[in-house]
């Protein structure tokens, strides 16, 4: 979208989007039964897949059927398509290696099922019944298990009750085996302590910040010879990017709106209809802390008067300040008693208890917003602009079909500029071009894709404007003429020279401080950085500052160049993690959980590989090829 102040007004953008939605309309279709089947059955029901071939692989005595493979492959295709928003074909899935991933998952599942059979692991009918009757796919209108719904859903998916129940029993047994393998693992303390120490370690240091203002001798104005030398030494900085030379015809709301004059009566009507936007009563920014009864509210107010903070009262109620924030309110938006008390109070006051719509409450007034009145005369220019923009969008929209017909009939962009309200322009477009028409996302996307074989078509832009474009030529990278980039060369030379001299002065300050026993304060004004962790934030810090500080020894002084600055840093404190920090405790807990999960996953993987190795895997590649042929 073009970066224009008029196009960025919230009201105008909202109105433009509303008009766009009203033109296109909306359609909502609900496939309730299909949704229940997918959620409840997880994709069962693909039958008779693969013709006469029955199995594609086996682990021990457990077979993997062609139907199992086809069903799993189609589920994977659907999942990837939903995730990417594109219809992924089987050929694309093969290029991504998804077919091999599906086969590996099926082999793993078969290995677990075979081990279940070998160990005699199963579940009883009672547990199986509870699991199936709890599935949403089989619930009736009353939310309870329905035998009719059960039969109907299975029938629609080509499954018998026996086959489905056997499959569920098998999955439940597999879960028992998996739980037995992964439960009981913990994260080693040494592992947790090492990471916590790395994350929570702290450093305190002193900073002497040097900028161009600290140079003893200002950087002089460069001579033409110096600029020419810098230009020749850095050709890449002044070589243009590959670009597309594009001709375009545009029609934008801003352009059309300038030609429109809105009737005075329409302007007044709009003002009257939106009076609340222009005449605003006095408001208060308020927080409301509600209590279950008057006695508890009075007791809280007594604690407040005795010195307890309002924040402590909020915390005692098990709430956060965000939970009680009402935002800005008018007196009419509060109950009679609350409104009177709140609007009689000054900023920072806590009033109450008074009766609110939720019960007795204390109100804290965080700010007083005065009444605001914008007269019609004051609002008129903005309203004129707003309505003119709206009319301009409608006028542009009404021309789209005609303009497309002209282009389809062979009209060129130059013809459009002569015969319609559209204006012609050219731009050398590349990844960095973002001004003018290239500021619109719609134009940028079209420009990135356009080829010389494409015919121009009308493209609708975010603000209601339109554009059509044509690729004229591909522009190769080229060194820009010196005269064209001289200002940029001057800026770059000055910056490079400033950085060079700053670094020299910083080196001198560092040596002087080291010679004075590490006293950095003798070299200038020093900022003291309180202990900070390596993932902390320091405003305008040079790149790599904190990582570099954590590599320093206590008392060491080091330089960190930044943009137009050099920081001279002395490490003064090397501290262990703050064990009382609640955020660090959360990090420690997360490390324990993640470590436990990772170890359990690794153990399960090794267990599965051991089963496969012991029982043996047989792959029928010809059956897989036949199944793949049907999926293409």
Write the layout of secondary structure elements.
Layout: H1 10-24, H2 32-41, E1 55-59, E2 62-65, H3 66-84, H4 90-95, H5 98-119, H6 125-133, H7 147-156, H8 161-182, H9 189-200, E3 202-211, H10 224-233, E4 243-251, H11 253-257, H12 264-273, H13 275-278, E5 279-280, E6 283-290, H14 294-305, H15 310-316, H16 321-324, E7 325-329, H17 336-344, E8 350-356, E9 359-369, E10 372-373, H18 376-408, H19 413-419, E11 423-429, H20 441-449, E12 459-460, E13 466-475, H21 482-515, E14 527-533, H22 545-549, E15 557-562, E16 565-575, H23 582-615, E17 617-619, H24 621-631
Antiparallel strand pairs: 1-2, 1-17, 3-14, 3-16, 4-11, 4-13, 5-10, 6-7, 6-9, 8-9, 12-13, 15-16
Helix pairs in contact: 1-18, 3-5, 3-24, 5-8, 5-23, 9-23, 10-21, 12-18
Outline: extended
Span between termini: 41 Å
Give the radius of gyration.
36 Å
Please give the CATH class of the largest domain.
Mainly Alpha
CATH topology of the largest domain: Triger factor/SurA peptide-binding fold
Order of the strands making up the biggest sheet:
14-3-16-15
CATH architecture of the largest domain: Orthogonal Bundle
**Number of domains as seen in the coordinates:** 4
Relative helix content: 40-55%
CATH superfamily of the largest domain: Porin chaperone SurA, peptide-binding domain
Helix- and strand-based class?
Answer: alpha+beta
Instruction: Please report the total strand number as a whole number.
Output: 17
